Amino acid sequence: MRFLIALLAGSASVFAYAPFGAMPLAFFSLAVLAALLTCAPGARSGFLLGFAWGFGAFVAGVSWLFVALHRYGGMPAPLAALAIGLFCAYLALFPGLIGALQARLQQGGAWRRAALFAGLWTLGEYLRGVLFTGFPWLAVGYTQVPPSPLAGFLPVLGVYGVGGLVAFVAALAVAADWRRRRQVVGVAAMVALLFVAGAGLRQIAWTQPVGEPLKVALLQTNIEQDLKWAPARLQDWLQVNARMVADNPAQLVVLPETTLPLLSDMLPRGYLDLLADYARAGGGDLVLGLFTRDADDNIYNAAVSLGSAPSQHYAKRHLVPFGEYSPPLFGWFYQLADIPMSDQTRGAPHQPPLAVGGQKVAVNICYEDLFGAELLDSLPEATLLLNISNLAWYGDSLALPQHLQIARARALETGRPMLRSTNTGMTAVVQPDGEVSARLPAFESGALHAEVRGYQGLTPYARWGDAAALGLAALALLGAVWLRSGRGRAA
């Protein structure tokens, strides 16, 4: 029964994320896990409880992968379900490890137990985000974008640090002895202090506008994934892209990731020149996503600028395993799934922002904006962030609103607007305070016209990266372990 409760609590956590936005459920879900771990007799039981919680959370939260593998990747449904189950089981190893260590090391009073859980949670999510190229989707801190008061900590501690705060509050509420008035007052005061501090940090403008307002046109082509690669429709898609650029002049026009379904050197002669002419006629620049190839036949998922400024490019550097490249020993995967352009090469680790529209625009492509620390490489030079994505792979699923929520966290962490141009949604403008100021409806072709300001300066997170969150987690763990001599006494 305990493991079933953990599984259900993990599954319920999906409602704390977009599009549901039931932010308090993040605290409740972790509180249930912390309560179960309090009664765990040992590390093995703790691991199984954490694993059950994690498996429930990831199956509920990333079920949209089934759409990519089965509907668009052509993998038989049973094999797609098995692949996703194995992937979620791998991800669940991280909360499993957290549970094992919590059950093994928890001793002493409420504050120590809560500090231990928070430290373990922070380090566990960080490891999930970096090991084997990382998969930080559904980090708990993403649930705390505005209107959560803890959103104020995102520019300071980043998403992992905020996740640690959620874990601390959840575990403290469980570990406290509610029969002792003094302890109840102390716990309530600490929680109130965190929320008030977060609300206060929200009032700080860590970065400042620079330059004149920029008129942008973020284009959403709405080309279905199963039609995009049909040779008979190629001419239609070329015309759709060209017409949308011509009809939406702006200082910065953006087409989504891989908006053209073939390599740049295979495009009709003069096609890119035509797009550049349209951009220049509108007095601006165009950034579009397409596949490029170098002299050594390496293929890149790239963003290329055309128009008034000299042409520049950015090549995606953090590729998606199994979608854009095959990890070692997994070549058999592509015998079961049909994924176009799945043998790509990583771009250079440090690439300068694109100088377009009078701004310095740091491009990240689709999945790359999950990795907040990597986006810091472009700062402080970059004044705007731009994400181009093709989420048509995932249909009408939770992936779209969850990805927009991730973009909101990145805007807060960097103190920069995040512009998003996507194929099917969510095309949007996210302000430095994490608020979405404009958005197109999903699954409609259209152009989002807006004025944005570039920003300069650095947030604390932009200066420190994840070091502050990891340092606090290490201190919490050291303190909880070092003070074990006080076990048996209440805090």
TrEMBL record:
Regions that span the bilayer: 26-43, 48-67, 79-103, 115-138, 150-172, 184-206, 461-483
A GO BP annotation: lipoprotein biosynthetic process
Topology class, membrane: Multi-pass membrane protein
Main location: membrane
A Pfam family of this chain: CN_hydrolase
Compartments, record wording: Cell membrane
Tagged with keyword RNA-binding: no
InterPro entries in alphabetical order: Apolipo_AcylTrfase, C-N_Hydrolase, C-N_Hydrolase_sf, LNT_N
Alphabetic keyword roster: Acyltransferase, Cell membrane, Lipoprotein, Membrane, Transferase, Transmembrane, Transmembrane helix
Top-rank taxon, per record: Bacteria
EC assignment: 2.3.1.269
Pathway(s) this gene product operates in, as recorded in its UniProt entry: Protein modification; lipoprotein biosynthesis (N-acyl transfer)
Residue ranges annotated for the CN hydrolase domain, each copy included: 219-454
GO CC annotation: plasma membrane
One GO MF term: N-acyltransferase activity
Class of this enzyme: transferase
NCBIfam families: lnt
Protein family (similarity comment): Belongs to the CN hydrolase family. Apolipoprotein N-acyltransferase subfamily.
Known function: Catalyzes the phospholipid dependent N-acylation of the N-terminal cysteine of apolipoprotein, the last step in lipoprotein maturation.
Name of the protein in question: Apolipoprotein N-acyltransferase
Native species: Azoarcus indigens
